[in-house]
Amino acid sequence: MKAKKPKIPNAFVIVFIIMVFSAIMTYIIPAGQYDLVEGTKNIDPNTFHRVEQSGTTLWGFVDSFFTGMQNGSSIILFTILLGGYFNVMIETKAFDAFISLLIKKMGTRTMVIIPIMAILMSVLGAVGVMANPVVAVVPVGIILAKKLKLDPLMGLAVTFVAAYTGYAMSPMCPMTVQTAQKIAEVPLMSGFGFRLFGWAVIMAVTVAYMMHYGNKVKMDQSKSVLGSGFLSEDEVEAEVVEFKLSHGFILVSLAVGMGIYVYGSLKLGWGLNYMAGVMLIVAFLSACFGRMGSEGFVQAFLKGARQMTFSALLIGCATAISVILTQGRILHSIIYGMAIPLHRLPDVLAGPVMYYVNLVFNFFVSSGSGQAAVVMPIMAPLSDVVGVSRQMAICAFQYGDGLSNLIFPTNGTMMACIAVAGVRYDKWMKWMMPLFGIWFVISTILIIIGSAVGVA
C-alpha cells in the first residue's frame, strides 16, 4: 500500500505555529531594549541594555490575535474594500474582454502580454502604490493566465511577483528607500541611478524566468508545478468576450484613477485611504458603464469582499507575530545579536552580510517602513564603522526587506495573494525558490559592486 503523502498545513496553521515558536522564544532569548533618540521613533544604537524578562503569557498570546488585527486594521479593511471594488469591475467582464482582444490581436505572439503586464506592475510597485494593494489585483492576473491556458502561478507572477520585485528594487519607494534615507541622513533620492540599474537587472531575470516557465506549461500542462489539472474543461475552452465601448470606458476610468493616485501618493503624500476612495469612485463608474444597477453593484461588491475575508484575517494573524516579539521584549535583542558579527568583518564582506542580516530580520518584521525605523538607526552608524557607505547600508536594508517578502510566511500580503490564487504554500515555494536563489546571488553582487565603486 502506497504511503500517504504528508499534507502541507493551511496558511493559518503555518502562521499559528510561528506564533507559538515566537512566544516560546520570549522565554529563551534574553530580553533587551534600545532607547529612542529624543523626539523621534528612531533607535539610538549605543544604548542597548538588558531589561527584565517578559515572557508571553497565555493571555498575552491569545490577546496578540486581536492586537495584531488592530495593528493591521488599515490594510485589513483596505484589502476587503479593494476586493469588493475590483470584483465590481471583474463582473462587468471588462478585463476578460480586454484580454480576449489582446489575445486576438497578438495571434501567435500572445505570450508577449506577460512581460508587458509584469513591467507595468513592477513600475507601480516601484513607486509604492502596488505593494499591499496587489492582493486585489491578483484575480486579474488569474483571468489573464486562464485566457493564455496557463496556471494560477503565472497569474501570481505577473501581478504579485512583478509588483513586489519593483517594490524591493525600487529607486524611489517612499515607504522603504526614502524612509531609510531620512533616518540615515543622506539626500533623498540619492543613489537613484544605481538602484534603477539594479531594478532593470532583477526585472530582466524575473521576466525571463516567467517566460521560460510559461512557455513550458503552455506546451505541456503536466510541466506545471500544480500538475495538469489546473484548468477545468470550461476554462480550457475559455469564453471569448467581445470588447465593447463600455469596457473601454471602464478600463480608462481605472487607468485615470490609478494615475490620479500615483500622482497624489508621490506629490501629496496620499495613503491607503485615498487609494480606497479613488477605487470606490472607479467601481461606481464601472457599475454605471456596465449597467449593473444598484442591486448588481452591491451584490458584486459583497462577493468580492467575501473572497478577501480569508486574506484579510491572515494579514492580521501574521502581524500578531511582531506583536509577540515586541511585547516579549526580544525584538531588539535579535537585532543586537545580528549586528555584533558585522564589526569583525572585512569591508568587502560587510555590505553583503548587512544584507543577509536584514533578510533574516524581515522574517520577524515584514513591514518595510517598520523595519527601516528599527534597523536603519543601527545600520547607518554601523556602516560608518565597518567601511560601508550609508547608501549601500540602505540598499542592504532594501533588498533584504523586499525580496524575502516573497518567501516568508510572516508576510501577510504574500499569504493573502497565494490564498486568493488557490495555490498552496509548498507549491508556491517550489516555484519561487529557484527565482529567489537567483535574486539572492544578483543582489549580493550588486551590493559588492556598489561598495567597491563607492556609491554614496
Q: Beta-strand level of the residues, as a percent range? A: under 5%
Query: Please, what is the average pLDDT?
Result: 81
Helical fraction equals: 55-70%
Number of helices: 20
Major sheet: 2 strands, antiparallel
Query: Low-confidence runs (pLDDT<50, min 5 residues)?
Result: 232-238
Shape: globular
What Rg, in angstroms, do the CA atoms define? 23 Å
Cα end-to-end separation: 63 Å
Sheet/helix structural class: mainly alpha
Taken in chain order, the helices and strands follow as HEEHHHHHHHHHHHHHHHHHHH
- How many individual β-strands? 2
Biggest sheet: strand arrangement: 1-2
Describe the structure.
With 456 residues, this protein is an all-alpha fold. The protein is globular and about 65 Å long. It has a two-stranded antiparallel sheet. Mean pLDDT is 81; it is low at 232-238. It is built from 20 helices and two strands.
Task: Tell me briefly what this model is.
It contains 20 helices and two strands. With 456 residues, the protein is an all-alpha fold.
Write the layout of secondary structure elements.
Elements: H1 11-28, E1 32-33, E2 49-50, H2 58-71, H3 73-91, H4 94-106, H5 113-126, H6 138-147, H7 152-168, H8 174-184, H9 192-219, H10 233-236, H11 245-267, H12 272-289, H13 293-307, H14 309-327, H15 331-339, H16 347-361, H17 368-386, H18 390-403, H19 412-421, H20 425-453
Antiparallel strand pairs: 1-2
Helix pairs in contact: 1-14, 2-14, 3-12, 3-13, 3-14, 4-6, 4-11, 5-7, 5-9, 6-7, 7-9, 7-18, 7-19, 8-17, 8-18, 9-20, 11-12, 12-13, 14-19, 16-17, 16-18, 16-20, 17-18, 18-20
